[in-house]
Amino acid sequence: MLDSAQAAEHTQSKSENLSGSRPGDKHHSTLLIPARVDTPELLDLGEGTPDDVKMSLDDLWRINRFFGGVMPITNHLFPRLRRHSGTATVLDVGTGSAQMAVLIARWAARNGCSVKVIGLDLASRHLAVAAAFAADTPNVKLLQADALHFPLKPESVDYVISSLFLHHFEPEQVISLLRQTFASARRGVILSDLERGRLPLLAFRLMQPILARSYLTRHDGAASVRRAYTPRELTELARAAGLTNVRVVRYFPWRMTLVAEKTGVSYDAGV
C-alpha cells in the first residue's frame, strides 16, 4: 500500500516513464488486453476516514480470499517453509491490513514451522488496521517504511512476498523495487498481482455489488486492473532488474505470481 506523498510522486513521474523505451514502458496491447493506464487510487491518495480505510482493506482481503488471491502466494511459499531448517523470516511488502501476514504465521504455527513475518507498509492508517488485526499473532511484526527506499540490509530475510502491490508502480519503479527486494532476500521473492485485461475489468464491475462495499474499493479495484501488468511485461521487468531463476506463473482468475530464487538455492521448478 502507498501513502498520498508516494502516490503524488508516481503521478508526477507518469508522463516521463510512459514516454521512455525502458523495459515495460511499451505495454503490450491486444483486443482483450488494453494498454496500461496508470490512474491513481483513492486509498493511496489518502482519501476516506479511518472507517472507510478499514472497510476497503476488508474488501481487498475478501476479494483475495474468495477470488484466487491467496493461493498464488501460499502455493509457492508454504512448500519452501516446510523445507526450511531453523526459523524462516518472511517480509510482506505492502502488507495493508496484514491479513496475508497473519494467515502465513497461523499456518506456520499449525504446521510446526518456525516462521517470523514482517509486514511492511508506508501508510500509518493501514498499519493501524494491521496492528489491530495482528494483535493476537506474536510472530507478526509491523514496520513502517517506503518500499521504494528499502530499509533492509542485503540478505536480511529469507523470502520477500507481496500481493496486489506491484501494479502501484511505474515500470522503472518496479525494476528498482524488484532489485531491492531480491537483494534483501537470502533465498528469493514471491510476488503476486493482478493481470491487466478487459475480462477482469468486466468481472470486477459485475462483482462490485457483492464484494466492494466501500466506495474506495469500487474506484480502486477498476483502477488496479487498468494499471496492472501482463505476465510478459512482468517477466521483462524482472529480467531488467537482474533477478535470477525467474518465472511467472498464471492463476485463475487473472492472477500471476513472479517467483525468483537466488542462484545456488535448491528449488523445485514445479512450484
Radius of gyration: 17 Å
| Beta-strand content | 15-25%
The gross shape turns out to be globular
Helix/strand order: HHHEHEHEEHEHHHEE
Numbering strands along the chain, what is their spatial order in the largest sheet?
A: 3-2-1-4-5-7-6
The total beta strand count reads 7
Instruction: State the separation between the terminal residues, measured CA to CA.
Output: 26 Å
Q: What level of helicity do the residues show? A: 40-55%
| Number of helical stretches of at least 4 residues | 9
Residue windows where pLDDT falls under 50 for at least 5 positions = 4-21
Q: What's the mean pLDDT score? A: 90
How would you classify the helix and strand content by structural class? alpha/beta
List descriptors.
271 residues, alpha/beta, single chain
Task: Kindly describe this structure.
With about 270 residues, the protein is of the alpha/beta class. The protein is about 45% helix and about 15% strand. It contains 9 helices and 7 strands, in the order H-H-H-E-H-E-H-E-E-H-E-H-H-H-E-E. A 7-stranded mixed sheet has the order 3-2-1-4-5-7-6, sandwiched between helices. Strand 2, helix 5 and strand 3 form a beta-alpha-beta unit. Helix 7 runs antiparallel to helix 8. The longest helix has 17 residues. The two termini are about 25 Å apart.
Concise account of the structure shown:
The chain is an alpha/beta fold and 271 residues long. The protein has nine helices and seven strands, in the order H-H-H-E-H-E-H-E-E-H-E-H-H-H-E-E.
